């Protein structure tokens, strides 16, 4: 295929659809962590700038960040690799460890970027659909093991917020013969991480990020936990020579030093998540699904477009997702600060009156 044919072929693809940008709107559409205070953010940036000379390549700095991450997730540094956000890590895995003949078993839906990347690289996927109550049956996955070469799970799932029990996922990893990629972008908001299991299972790759729990989405900092052999190949051969910029590296180190402050924020988000689910259910107007992430998915029962537009008119931007599984009109709202969440809930209440 020549260049023009390939360009034409790619032009027909949709690509990953980012949320619409609405200036001055209360931003509850991208699962960003606004419960992190501006003071905390400023401390990260001030400290990072103080420790950086951006005239230099970040030689030696990545090693300090790796040491901090290994302490945080309790695995050796030789089992940790870095990436320009978890998106880039997933992309590099698909580019270098997967082919058009590789079959990936995943859920339907799963992380939109991962789905689009599989389409871009013509990688076939086998999808297990969510039930009406937005849960997955672990037996459905196990029954399809023989047809798949790779298993990909976002845990918790985006956009549903669903997460298997830890023992169920561990059993899947143990029983599956191929590579298992567990995407824990929202892991800190859930009940567990599988990262330490990478010490036991050579087929397990856990991808994580600073974007959500640490509120560092704009710095694009992710990491991967896997066997020493995988990390050696990934870091030495597959990854770019300097994938992370100096400011992001230094900010990541400082953030990990302040991880106890992050724990307070995570507790707040979990509590507020419960409040949002409870209040939305009390309206009787929505199907609201349990979540282990920093967002809540709900079906507006055909009124999703009207609610989305009405919320925008009140200066609140949420995510319009439309059909997911057996639900036709899904919306997703990020769990923000108490004040942000209260504004969202008040707007919903006024809209339904």
Widest sheet, order of strands: 2-8-7-6-5-3-4
Outline the low-pLDDT stretches. Answer: none
Number of domains: 2
Strand content: 15-25%
Q: What name does the CATH topology of the largest domain carry?
A: Aspartate Aminotransferase, domain 2
Binned, the helix content reads 40-55%
> What is the succession of H and E elements?
HEHHEHEHEHEHEEEHHHEEHEEH
Q: Which geometry do the CA atoms define?
A: globular
Mean pLDDT: 94
Number of strands: 12
Name of the CATH class of the largest domain: Alpha Beta
Distance between the termini: 58 Å
Rg is 20 Å
Largest sheet descriptor: 7 strands, mixed
Structure, described:
The protein has helices spanning 3-11, 38-50, 61-73, 85-97, 112-120, 138-143, 166-175, 228-238, 246-257, 259-283, 304-313, 338-352, and strands at 26-28, 80-83, 104-108, 125-129, 150-154, 179-183, 204-209, 222-225, 287-288, 295-299, 316-324, 327-334. It is α/β, with parallel strands linked by helices and 353 residues long. The chain has two domains: 3-38 and 260-352, Aspartate Aminotransferase, domain 1; 53-258, 3-Layer(aba) Sandwich (Aspartate Aminotransferase, domain 2). The strands form two sheets. It has a seven-stranded mixed beta sheet, with helices on both faces. Strands 1-11-12-10-9 form a five-stranded mixed beta sheet. Helix 5 links the parallel strand 3 (104-108) and strand 4. The chain is globular, with a radius of gyration of 20 Å.
């Amino acid at each position: 295929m020549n260049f023009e044919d390939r360009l034409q072929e790619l032009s027909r693809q949709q690509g990953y659809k980012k949320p619409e940008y609405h200036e001055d709107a209360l931003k509850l559409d991208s699962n960003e962590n606004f419960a992190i205070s501006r003071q905390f953010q400023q401390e990260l940036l001030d400290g990072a700038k103080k420790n950086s000379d951006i005239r230099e390549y970040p030689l030696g700095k990545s090693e300090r960040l790796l040491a901090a991450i290994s302490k945080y997730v309790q695995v050796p540094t030789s089992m940790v690799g870095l990436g320009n956000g978890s998106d880039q890590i997933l992309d590099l895995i698909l580019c270098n460890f997967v082919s058009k003949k590789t079959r990936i078993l995943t859920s339907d839906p799963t992380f939109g970027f991962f789905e689009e990347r599989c389409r871009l690289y013509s990688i076939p996927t086998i999808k297990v659909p969510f039930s009406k109550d937005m849960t997955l049956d672990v037996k459905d996955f196990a029954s399809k093991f023989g047809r798949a070469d790779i298993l990909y799970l976002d845990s918790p799932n985006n956009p549903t917020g669903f997460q298997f029990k830890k023992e169920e996922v561990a059993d899947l990893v143990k029983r599956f013969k191929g590579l298992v990629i567990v995407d824990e972008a929202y892991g800190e908001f859930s009940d567990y991480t599988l990262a330490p299991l990478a010490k036991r299972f050579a087929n397990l790759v856990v991808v994580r990020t600073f974007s959500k729990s640490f509120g560092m989405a704009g710095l694009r900092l992710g990491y991967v936990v896997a066997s020493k052999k995988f990390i050696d190949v990934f870091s030495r051969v597959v990854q770019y020579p300097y994938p992370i910029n100096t400011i992001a590296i230094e900010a990541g180190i400082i953030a990990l030093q302040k991880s106890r402050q992050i724990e307070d924020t995570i507790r707040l988000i979990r509590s507020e998540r419960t409040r949002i689910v409870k209040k939305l259910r009390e309206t009787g107007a929505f199907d609201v699904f349990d979540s282990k992430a920093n967002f809540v998915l709900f079906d507006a029962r055909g009124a999703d477009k009207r609610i989305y537009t009405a919320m925008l008119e009140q200066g609140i931007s949420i995510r319009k997702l439309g059909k997911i599984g057996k639900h036709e009109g899904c919306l997703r709202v990020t769990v923000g600060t108490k004040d942000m969440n209260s504004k969202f809930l008040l707007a919903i209440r006024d809209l339904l009156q």
